[in-house]
Amino acid sequence: MFSLFYGLWKYMFQKSEYFILILGLDGAGKTTLLEAIKTRYTKIPGLSPSNIIPTVGLNIGKILYEGVKLVFWDLGGQLQLRSIWDKYYADVHAVIYIVDSSDKERFKESKDELEMIIGHDKLKDVPILLFFNKQDLPNAESIDFLSSLFQSVILKSTASSSNSSNNNNSSIVSSSNSQTSINIQLQSLIAINSNSKGLDDGIKWLVDNLKKNARIIENEL
Ligand SMILES: Nc1nc2c(ncn2[C@@H]2O[C@H](COP(=O)(O)OP(=O)(O)OP(=O)(O)O)[C@@H](O)[C@H]2O)c(=O)[nH]1
Ligand SMILES: [Mg+2]
Fold first, then answer.
1. N or C: which end of the chain has fewer CB within 10 A?
2. Residue 101, ligand 1, Cβ within 6 A
3. CATH number at residue 151
């Protein structure tokens, strides 16, 4: 009986809370993004980019956005730290994946990591926000170029896709077979600028998707 009332109380009064994992190669800008999110959406500003050092453990940020709580987990991207990424997969509602748009030598490495994420069993039905960061740099590749480069990973991961669409910075790829469905948004970003439109657009897309259809994580019940 108690659990019934508790469930009802939770449903009526508690704000939804979503966990979001921030992944990407070392140096892509994950922590810079996390700090920009704090600056943009909370009253306490995040660290300035000059005070950010490479991540070894876990950085956490929490915000309230349009009535929902978002908890961001930022992990280190160095090769030897990537083996712990998947320990978090079962506990997240969404993934943000960041690419350094100027690091041409590592696009292949970044694509390979993204491919593993998209294809991972524990991340089925989880929305993925793919940020092409550092768009302020003169040697950054264009969003068109990066979109077609990364589109191949997305399509490969959904080999049985029945339908895909692409407009400007966004790409929603879906499949009639729910086992291979994927919901991914491609978005430009300048993480060092906490007021960038890319940041706003990306977070809005994420929250809209979570509100519509977030997966249920068992140990939350
Ligand atoms: N120009 C420019 N530099 C950026 C941007 N975002 C991040 N950087 C720089 O990229 C470098 C790496 O940023 P981090 O946020 O530490 O990268 P990370 O992905 O957290 O790296 P790890 O913690 O090692 O996995 C820093 O020197 C940042 O200032 C951006 O939008 N533009
Ligand atoms: Mg970091």
1. N
2. no
3. 3.40.50.300
